[in-house]
Amino acid sequence: MKRNLTDIISQMTLEEKASLCSGLNMWQTKPVERLGIPSIVMTDGPHGLRKQANPGDMSSKTVPATCFPSGAGLASSWDRELIREVGAAIGEECQQEDVQIILGPAVNIKRSPLCGRNFEYFSEDPFLSSEMGASHVKGVQSQGVGTSVKHFAANNQETLRNSINAVVDERTLNEIYLRSFEGPIIEGDAWTVMCAYNQVNGDYCSENDYLLNQVLKQRWGHGGLVMTDWGAINERVKGLKAGLELEMPYVGPEHDRMIVEAVQSGELEEAVLDEAVRRLLTVIFKGYDGKKEGFTYDAEVHHQLARRAAADCMVLLKNEGSLLPLKPEQSVAVIGAFAKHPRYQGGGSSHITPTRMDAPFDAIAGMSADCAFAPGYLLKGGEADDSLIEEAVKLAQSKDVAVIFAGLPDSFESEGVDRTRLDMPSSHIRLIEAVAAAQPNTVVVLSNGSPVTMPWLPQVQAVLEGYLGGQATGSAAADVLYGKVNPSGKLAETFPVRLEQTPAFLNFPGGKSEVTYGEGLFVGYRYYEAKKEEPLFPFGYGLSYTTFAYEDIRADRTSMKDTDTVNVSVTVRNTGTVAGKEIVQLYVKPLESHVVRPVKELKGFAKVHLQPGEAKTVHFVLDQRAFAYFNTDIHDWFAESGAYDIVAGPSSADTPLSVTLSLESTGIPFRKVGRNTKFYELMAIPETAAFAKEAMEGSLERLKQMGAMFAESMGDDGIAELFEAVVKWRKYDALRSLSGMMGGGTSEADLSKIIDDLNTKLKLNS
After folding, report:
1. Which of 44, 238, 425, 603 has CA atoms 20 to 30 A from the CA of 272?
2. What does the alpha-carbon distance between residue 747 and residue 744 come to, in Å, rounded to a whole number?
3. Which residues are in the Fibronectin type III-like domain (predicted)?
4. Which of these is catalytic: 44, 229, 418, 733?
5. Do 476 and 392 share a structural domain?
């Protein structure tokens, strides 16, 4: 239904406009009944619906809903279509429960594995996180229900999250932390964005003009509304000016009065308020019009989707001697309290009341002819119980195989608190070590929202990373253990050997008021590759019950301009005996750069299903952004001229296929030529290349003449070596060197004229 929003706004009183900028209660927006403006309902997500039965009553219980795998697990599927299906199912459940906006997806980057909310986030890689988030948004919104992409931005820890100032340089902020939001917001067209509690570079996210106005609205063109995380307001009027429309939840009339008084005093232009109201009305009416009255979803269908999703998310980390898949005739000792009381979701605002619950032991009992259970450890507390371990060892010795369900209890990771170590509880570790010593055929199934150390890894035959698999985690684990599902998940984050190895170790979680992102661009695999550090398991890693061969990579061109695209094809074959899915990963690797860059970065991926012996060719299209870095001189993306390897393989640490491409930049990496413009920057631009080459050659001639003064002390060989090093350095020198000792003969007036002429030639404002 079309409405004239300008006309509606013109009929609103100042007080009514201000009132729309805060909620009605905990979960609803305010109505303006005389103008036909309805109230809409929003509620927690993101991996399922967490709705209180009465939105106005904080004490009311949450309604049952399908609990899907959390973000950490879903991202390990690397499956856009699967995540879109899950999103659509969540949207259907929102329709049944009369919810117009679900709060999610959560796309913050996993800067440190210690972040207590990592179970809710997708990845350490911004491209993967962005793609997963976009698919989630498209799925939910296909059902006429809105999403709220969160938490914008740099909300990468729970310690002091309400006040901490994230100090992060502009390039890192854009390449890593903001890049993760682009897909859900631009491609997914998310209705709303939720700002984070923390500060970024000195301004609270709720009143950060750079984030909300300059990036979100101006650069990305977001047309929806920005809401606070619950209670994330700082200064109400300042927030409104910076691009914050909706404060949640309602805290009383005072903040609404602040807006009215700011307009009346001239502190706030009413046009700014009108624009906020226009955005609010756009989303409110979209949600209201999208309602499907009387809609119901099929809980069993959604449960089976949750089961399929959980199985596709699980990552087989180890399988020595092909112990897995298990055979029905093998006797099995099922060990670990998680086998009967699974840890299937994280703690905090995303905690869902599931429609049903599948326990691993029950599912295994339905597939095994002979299985028995021992708890092995207590659900609460981390200390080992010798009697429980002894019982588990005896059971393991009496069976063909021991399957241990272990990981992290609820108390070890939750919204609101960060982890302090990567270790599992000592009760879980001692159990695994004792059982593995007694039973050589030991499998460990992990339930955790983020990486754990594995000192016991050499002692066990197989490890299955189950993450927090949702309400069907038990049946999904059994499906994978018994080969009904061939595991196809791959890690969306690096698993370190130890905490001290992690990129942010020296800077996480910061001091009492700020945290410095000292690792810069080198988050996750970018850090391990640059440092040549070998992690426990690399980004993108995961095994299968079959094998795959990467046979060929081709590009449809060997050179391109940054205004072109290149089509890349990768052929992969199933060389094993069972059908399986492989995740083809494509990375771009700059061979030489004038700025610091990661060794390589993920720029494409595809999940492909292959029968035994079958080969398929996967196609990727790479544009300028695949080769670009964020240039802080022009405050935009810039692809520099040069050679790039495009590599493909099954993980970040294994990329056997490679093709080289030469890229020619048509952009200008600076806003105007100045004294500090580099020779190499001018040489990369056709209009100024000849000048730069001539100027640098003249400078080098002067260097040769001056070399004589060192010849006596260094000899000819020493001079040659020194000159070679200096020449390489001079490549980076700035224009101002023309008037210095090394350049010789160029006056300040001459330099100013040269700069003016160059700007004129490039049509830049000097």
Report:
1. 44
2. 9
3. 582-652
4. 229
5. yes
